[in-house]
Write a structure and sequence with these properties.
single chain, alpha/beta, 8-stranded parallel beta sheet, two-stranded antiparallel sheet, 15 helices, 12% strand
Length: 451
């Protein structure tokens, strides 16, 4: 065989074949870990493909259902949250809320823009870790104050100023993990609100310091109700770890509203291994949470808000058809403000990324001025213009959801139901509890729950 070149060697006609297990991304990860001894921190949420709302289709109406005319028959979209115990439930004109994102991870202009956009569209926004900024409170008619394990920025005065309180047990991008804010974003103002030294990395606790279970949590909820005169709805937010039992225990603890966040939810900064490998898809979160509420005879009595990868009015309609009362958006809201803007392509490329790929939210170098504390970059975001963009996006989503609801013959978007949908894949059918298209088969439903 001397002098013979084997086919498959470099330059041969066989071509090169990439390994599935050790593809270029895996090889790059191993090289970086070996070179630096550091794990990867990033934002922007999970990038892997998991079954999602795109794997469900709405049936629409024909002979067996009567569709509504969009130009003369109304389809209502309002939803009231907190009807169980709160003396002052909050009413949203649309079933889409803005999820909690902190001042620190976001610039003050971004927080103001979120408030402006939500206010114009008739919905609520949420504070996030680190406390309530005056800009956010001033420009948000309905503001939910988050109560997180860190207790950063939490005080009775702001709790009373809020329209609802959201106790955060977990987040979809990192259930079981605490928050993270790297030192380059801990400016003087951020540090002052969190009672921290400036410029030092901040890691929040992964669990609350003053309870270990639902009985202790019930005491905390009563304490928060007494601080706020029993006026404010109390939400409990969980990442999609064990949605059935997390929802049931939230109800037991006395929540007015349960918020469940699927693994497609974003984050400003956490470990890449967390984002991609911990938590469950949003489809699972909705089905399990709704089933818990039904089993407890609390469906629609305790409201359910679902987040994690919501992008379009179709996603909204499908989540509500599965039994949610409303949805929350985070990453999509930032994109509406101007994040991932193709007009900034040159600057993204200079940072080694590109529009649609930017994930270094933890770095504080966001050219869009949204996920930064750099004064020069933050000034790039006009909160009035960005707020108007967000309001436009929320209106489009609402109109899309109404269009689908009318096509299914519904006069209110919450009248959508599982029977209005089919699944395209066996996986989505099993996760969502929706029949596979062309059959009446829901994989796994014949088996007894055994968790």
């Amino acid at each position: 065989m001397s002098g013979h070149t084997e086919k498959g060697s470099s330059g041969s006609g066989w071509g090169l074949r990439e390994s599935h297990s050790f593809d270029r991304n895996s090889i790059h990860y191993i090289h970086e870990a070996a070179r630096t001894g550091l794990y990867r921190i990033r934002g922007f949420g999970a990038k892997r493909r998991v079954p999602n709302f795109d794997d469900l289709l709405m049936k629409g109406a024909s002979m067996s259902r009567y569709p509504l005319e969009g130009y003369r028959e109304a389809c209502e979209t309002g939803v009231t949250l907190g009807t169980r115990y709160a003396e002052k439930p909050i009413h949203l004109e649309i079933p889409i809320t803005i999820a909690g994102m902190s001042f620190g991870s976001l610039s003050a202009n971004a927080k103001e823009a979120l408030g402006r956009g939500a206010n114009e569209a008739g919905t609520s926004t949420t504070t996030g870790d680190g406390g309530m900024t005056p800009e956010e409170r001033q420009h948000s008619r309905l503001l939910v104050c988050q109560y997180l394990p860190s207790r950063y920025g939490v005080n009775p005065d702001d709790l009373r100023k809020a329209d609802a309180i959201e106790i955060v047990v977990g987040q979809g991008a990192k259930p079981g993990g605490g928050g993270m804010l790297l030192g380059q974003k801990v400016t003087g103002r951020v540090a002052g609100m969190r009672t921290l030294p400036s410029g030092v990395d901040q890691r929040s606790a992964c669990r609350h310091p003053d309870w270990t279970g639902p009985d202790d949590l019930a005491i905390k909820i009563t304490e928060l109700r007494e601080i706020t005169g029993w006026e404010k709805p109390i939400y409990i937010k969980c990442g999609a770890a064990r949605p059935y039992y997390d929802t049931a225990l939230s109800v037991k603890a006395g929540a007015d509203v349960v918020v469940i966040d699927g693994m497609q939810g974003g984050t400003a900064a956490t470990q890449d291994v967390f984002i991609e490998h911990v938590g469950q898809p949003t489809l699972v979160a909705v089905k399990e949470a709704v089933q818990a509420l039904i089993d407890l005879d609390m469906h629609r009595k305790v409201q359910l808000v679902v987040g994690g990868g919501i992008r379009t009015g179709a996603d909204v309609a499908k989540a509500i058809a599965m039994g949610a009362d409303a949805v929350s958006i985070g990453t999509a809201a930032l994109i509406a403000l101007g994040d991932q803007n193709p007009e900034l392509e040159a600057e993204y490329r200079a940072a080694g990324s590109g529009a649609g790929y930017w994930e270094d939210y933890q770095a504080g170098t966001d050219p869009a001025g949204i996920t930064t504390q750099d004064p020069k970059l933050a000034k790039r975001l006009d909160p009035v213009v960005a707020g108007r963009r967000l309001a436009n996006y929320l209106r489009v989503m609402t109109l899309e959801a109404q269009t689908i609801a009318r096509a299914c013959g519904k006069s209110h978007i919450r009248n959508l139901e599982p029977d209005d949908m089919v699944a395209l894949t066996v996986e989505a059918a099993a996760m969502a509890g929706i029949p596979l298209a062309g059959t009446d088969w829901i994989p796994g439903q014949s088996r007894i729950r055994d968790m």
